[in-house]
Description:
CATH class of the largest domain: Alpha Beta
CATH superfamily of the largest domain: Bira Bifunctional Protein, Domain 2
Structural class: alpha+beta
Number of strands: 10
Number of domains: 2
Bound molecules: 3,4-dihydroxyphenylalanine
Order of helices and strands: HHHHHHEEHHEHEEHEEEEHEHH
CATH architecture of the largest domain: 2-Layer Sandwich
Distance between the termini: 86 Å
Number of helices: 13
Amino acid sequence: xVNRGLMGATGLQFRHHMIGPKQSNSGPVxxxxxxxxxxxxxxxxxxxxxxxxxxTRVAAVGKKGEVSLMMRxxxxxxxxxxxxxxxxxxxxxxxxxxxxxxxxxxxEDAALNERLRTEWQDVSAPARxxxxxxxxxxxxxxxxxxxxxxxxxxxxxxxxxxxxxxYNFDALNIPPEHPARxxxxxxxxxxxxxxxxxxxVLRTHTSPVQIxxxxxxxxxxxxxAPGRVYRSDYDNTHTPMFHQVEGLAIDKDxxxxxxxxxxxxxxxxxxxxDNVELKFRASHFPFTEPSAEVDIRCSWQGGQLKIGEGDDxxxxxxxxxxxxxxxxxxxxxxxxxxxxxFGIGIDRLAMLKYGIPDLxxxxxxxxxxxxxxxxxxxxxxxxxxGI
Length: 387
Ligand code: DAH
């Protein structure tokens, strides 16, 4: 540091004056003061930045600075010398301090101006992208299904995920000893010891909503009931929690033909292909008679699924004409009313439509997966292929 070097040399020189033999007149002291003054004021004027200015300040008026040392020397002067040197040193100190303050203000202004010159914002630059959440494929597909069925005149019904035995099984014509109860891999809710009431279950399907809806709102009705269902099962096409959508249409003259048309229209709209082909395969469900499982024509080429062409068939849903016992359980006269019901796996539809290979990843909450397969919240549920 140049300043400190200079100061060191001059400091010594002044100390010599101060503690040396007393001067007979004030001449040399006054000339020392005036030399020091011009030297320090020059240093102040030349300080290139705030750091250099601070070093100058410490070297001049700091505790061990040159001016301070000279002031300390006052005690050893004769009263006459003191009379002259004292006020002169005070004046010097004041002058230096105000020079320092002025220079400091000047340097700060310059520093600010430099910042203003170099740190600028391009207000026309595009904003940084803000991370947005995405819509889960299950939510997206659920919205698509609701939109398609809304066009067909269907409302949306809901039921509880913790069901009782009666709605999940009995009312759907699945009595306690029925083998279908075993097939469902049901989760039973905990019961306290000694509580012999039938246990509650996590609903194994959305079919109980059929009963609840008809009980509460009567018939005729046309509803779908999307929601979560639970079964104790886990592999790459099964998770313990998954999603179904139930369909129910009851009126006086609803037939299997209406069921077929409805499901074909739905698949056409959902998969966005005009030439969907469905195969109704005779099956059995306790709550429908007759019952049919429905397969859709598709092809797998290079691991890619195409709907509506090829030689493969993929099962997508279960359906049938609602069993008279089910209508009766819901308080509906089966002599007057009849209709169809169906149950579709929502997750499976999402896998098929969007080419997602592993069901388990749906519920892992892996952000990378969600960003890849998720949908923008501004996407409209796809209705192409209109009804
Ligand atoms: N509840 C059935 C299941 O989870 C699916 C089902 C089949 C629902 C036929 C229906 C139906 O409404 O008619 O396996």
